[in-house]
Amino acid sequence: MRASSRFTFWIKGAQALALAVAVCFSLGATEPNSRFVDLNHRLMCTCGCAEILGECNHVGCPNSTGELNELRAGIAKGLSDKEILDTFVAKYGAVVLAAPTTHGFDLVAWIAPFAVFAAALLGTILLVRRWSVGKTQSEAPASDPAMDALRDKIRRETE
Amino acid sequence: MAAFGSFALLIALALAAWNLLAGAVALRLIATGQPSAISPERLADTARRAGIAGFWAVTAAAFALVWSVFTNDFSITYILEHSNRALPGAYKFSALWSGQEGSLLLWAWLLGAYGFVLRLTHKRDVKLYAYAGAILAGIQVFFLAILCFAAPPFSLFQGAIPADGAGLNPLLQYPEMVIHPPMLYLGYVGFSVPFAFALGALMMRYPGEKWIKITRIWTMVTWLFLTCGIFLGMHWAYAVLGWGGYWGWDPVENASFMPWLTGTAFLHSVMMQEKKGMMKSWNVWLIFSTFLLTLLGTLLTRAGLVSSVHAFAQSSIGTWFTVFMGIVLAVCIFTYILQRDHLKSEHHLESLVSRESSFLFNNLVLLAACFVILWGTLFPILSEYVVGNKVTVGAPWYNAVAVPIGLFLLFLTGVGPLLPWRATSLRAIKRNFVLPCVALWATVAVCLVVGVKPWKDGAFDQGSFYAIVAFALSAAVFTAIASEFMRGTLVIARQSGRNLIWAKYMLIRRNTRRYGGYIIHIGVVIVVVGLAGAAFNRSVESEMALHDKLSIGPYVLECVGATQDSNANYNSEYALLDVYKGGKKQFQMSPEKRVYLASEQPQTMVAIHSRPEWDLYVVYEGTNPDTNQPIIKAFLNPLVSWIWAGVALMFWGTLIALVPSLKPGTQKGGQQ
């Protein structure tokens, strides 16, 4: 197969795949409303069990039933997600949220991991590029012969 | 027995201190060649023997505690608080690690046991082993000092001794709890050995790759213990806690996961040092970090710094750990600065697209994952310190931040083996990556066609999206590894004229480390598929009167009874549920709720019916006080059994990697 026809083959293949994906996405069926489940997984049980509200299953937990009822009431009243979460924070404090918010100092919790990861990734790429460029420009400097001899001696003695 | 145990600990402390001091003096004398009244070799040997004797002294102390549990010696506070007369034998044994003092004694005993084995095999390299032995003795001094002065396991109860104890925490009265903590501790403590060798080798300017070869088996066995410990803990959480999940990003779970990540990074990067003489400083710091993280995890959960579902009671030992970590870090930094010229790389990376760089990026991502978990664990403390506002960093945060990094790591798992050493060409990349790319996109297409879509109720669903990405990447990685296996197998089959099964066996035997590693990677892929299944968990909850029915997925649960039972240890209530599928009765499940008599604490005993495609997971949540009818919560958790299957494969892969490779010319029946 010639290069140009092979290229066309891959382009057409990619188009077919994109079309198939688009068709599949357009066939989406709507699930029953899961807002209650979504919200109760964004809140913590306040009884001290350190569990997500929707997953706290302590027998006779003094708090989770009340919290879940408050959540149901909030949804029934037509409050938005933000209003419901704000109501919980006002009543129980910020610890009731299962994750930090995205404003104020809480934002640092979200940004720092990606910033550190990106910086480390960039640093590594630059380092490898520098090494590879240095390699093509000049051979690595010869190592210290005394140190090499010492290493060889230790290797032999510890075989 | 309390006095015997206490004295045994004091003797062990004295022996460990002698091991450290005599060992350090002897090694200093040998290094400087100074004349001395006593031969430094003999002094070093007394240090070694003190280490061996110290192990027996700690064993005596551990025996004393176990004996006291079995003889119900409630004059010892620890026994009074962690056992009772009706406690079954196996759980009496596990009382050894159910509390702070006992678990520290277990730690000291395991450290002694590792040191015992190390000191018995010292002839392999007397000087390096002497360094490592002295460093281990230093660690042992710390733990024994805590046991003697800060958290004594044999302290006596003041006042009239009660007739019975408070009993073991009900959460721990489960068969896996008899093996999960020792496994985890074997992993934690085991990293002390490569740490001691690394520090010792750096102190004596030992050739880098030789200490790595010596400690390879130690490191892999330790890693295996930690892996098994973590997954046993997951399975325990799944089967006992009754919330339908296995990993809650709890600080104690995170504490075990962080050293696992750095330990895994170390296992990968040491290959670079062995093969290319690269990343020497990196490796030394990886193993230093791994050891420090085991200490940090212990500090976090025992000092009450973070709240956890299963943290130990708050105590003063946090200060001890902080000081010890400071000393260890200072020693590591000082030694590194002093000897860093010894750690210069013999080669540098030549290309961004090479096996070497894939190892580097793999390490980077593993460390990034470790940082994310450490950051999430410590952020509540940081937030309280900076703005005076304590926040929760729970599963939603970890799912949003750690999962993408985990998926990137999975991607690298597949890419790494496809890249050759040094550098690669575009043609080679195309050739190696076609099949995995086809597998990836085919999986995406299949997921969408069968109804696994990244949205729910018309909105983007993060969980489903990540699950599809995980399935697709898993398929690609599996294809990449399988094609590596197939390529090698076909070459051997062609060369030897034997069948593919024999050829595959020979392929693995000729390079157990490489192909054992690939098997571990396949295990990881299977685990990831299992984890991704959690995005599609379903649950229903209902109060069930007699013959009431509850539907979930293809199953219908019918309540056919609710009854009670009791024995000397606990009272229990349980429901009997007939499970129907397609109108036919399949099996019966009996979820249970126990109330332990000694502690008066309730405990869930989940009923699980496991299938490859999903687990039917049923919890008895208790009874409605108004109607006296049982409340049942049923979960349908897809692909959970894949996690345990994947772990089993990781276990076997590690065992294979531990077997020495067949040297050329020694295989039977084939071409030589």
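qc> Chain A is about 65% helix and 0% strand.
qc> done
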